[in-house]
Specification:
Elements (H helix, E strand, L loop, with lengths): L2 E2 L4 H6 L1 H5 L6 E8 L5 E10 L2 H10 L9 E7 L5 H17 L4 E7 L6 E5 L5 E4 L6 H8 L8 H7 L16 H15 L11 H11 L1 H11 L3 H12 L4 H17 L3 H18 L5 H12 L3 H8 L9
Parallel strand pairs: 4-5
Antiparallel strand pairs: 1-3, 2-3, 2-4, 5-6, 6-7
Helix pairs in contact: 3-4, 7-8, 8-11, 9-11, 10-11, 11-12, 11-13, 12-13
């Protein structure tokens, strides 16, 4: 996690989109910090809508992420029409943190992070200019190292909810006859030696294997751990060509790979979309997906998740 320079409010705010992966609007951002050698180190970053009830519940709903935190920075991103409600939400959040002896060292409000503007410290009355996050060194560095920042959270949701035409191939009756070819194709795509467009029947073949047995799903997941970023994108593409249980399992793999790649925002969205689809279609939600969501809520690190996903018998309790 990066270090945070608390003396520069503009830098604190402009770092948020690069950390979240999207530009928040009408949002409360909670930065949890822990002491580092020179600067405070970011421990966790939480975002929720401007809502006093959510603020009153955050230390309970996300209790594990507060362990080890020594300070917090609170940020509200909202238009002028919503500043009173945002300030009230920040008050509730500050009081909740005080109940667990966690000081809120900054409480900032800004109308927008995507456009030139200003920040205000609601406790001191100080204010200053804010340049768009794209112009910040922090954001440029994150993008250079592979971070993807979208204009809005809805753009990330669309990555898991936009259907792709799935040309259904002629498939032999038993999965064993095309098992090796499907695994070889997935390995080639995630290693960069092949492209999904050259294998238009991959989603159908993968979907059949996913629903054939949980051993197949786990084997596919193990295949992806060494290239989690590429695998996460591939499985989102596969999921968007499937329906029913196969789609739920593909979304679970995509979420797991995003988590292993330290993109916890996309991991959470993939697993949430899978949960909603399962609920709508009256399909059982995979236990692996439940475990991953629980781990996200508990602030389990991507390193620990990679170790977990590399273990055997992931579906022992399924």
């Amino acid at each position: 996690m990066p270090s945070i320079k608390l003396h520069d409010n503009a830098s604190i705010i402009s770092a948020v989109p690069a950390l979240l992966g999207f530009t928040p609007r009408d949002s409360i951002i909670l930065m949890l910090l822990k002491e580092g050698d020179t600067n405070d180190t970011l421990s966790h970053l939480l975002r929720f809508d401007i809502d006093t009830a959510a603020a009153a519940n955050v230390t309970t709903a996300a209790a594990p992420v507060f362990h080890g935190a020594t300070a917090a920075v609170l940020i509200a991103v909202c238009g002028d029409w919503n500043t009173d409600r945002a300030a009230e939400t920040l008050d509730v959040l500050r009081d909740q943190l005080a109940d667990i002896d966690l000081p809120a060292v900054r409480r900032l409000i800004t109308p927008d992070i995507d456009q030139p503007g200003a920040w205000t410290d609601i406790d001191t009355g100080e204010h200053g200019p804010l340049t768009p996050y794209r112009d910040s060194i922090f954001a440029a560095n994150r993008v250079y190292h592979g971070a993807d920042v979208t204009a809005d959270r809805a753009d990330i949701v669309a990555e898991f909810t936009t259907p792709i035409t799935n040309p259904v191939p002629v498939i032999p009756k038993h999965p064993v006859s095309y098992l090796a070819d499907t695994f070889d194709t997935i390995a080639a795509i995630i290693s960069g030696t092949a492209h999904p467009a050259t294998h238009p029947d991959l989603a159908t073949r993968a979907g059949i294997l996913l629903t054939h047995s949980l051993d197949m799903r786990d084997a596919m997941l193990l295949l992806c751990i060494d290239h989690p970023e590429q695998a996460a994108d591939l499985w989102a593409r596969i999921a968007n060509q499937l329906t029913g249980p196969a789609r739920i399992e593909a979304l679970t793999i995509s979420g797991a790979c995003h988590y292993a790649a330290a993109d916890t925002v996309r991991a959470g969205i993939a697993l949430d979309v899978a949960a909603q689809d399962a609920l709508t279609a009256h399909i059982d939600y995979p236990r692996l997906a439940q475990l991953l969501l629980t781990a996200l809520s508990a602030g389990i690190s991507p390193t620990e998740i990679r170790e977990f996903l590399s273990s055997v018998n992931l579906h022992a309790e399924d």
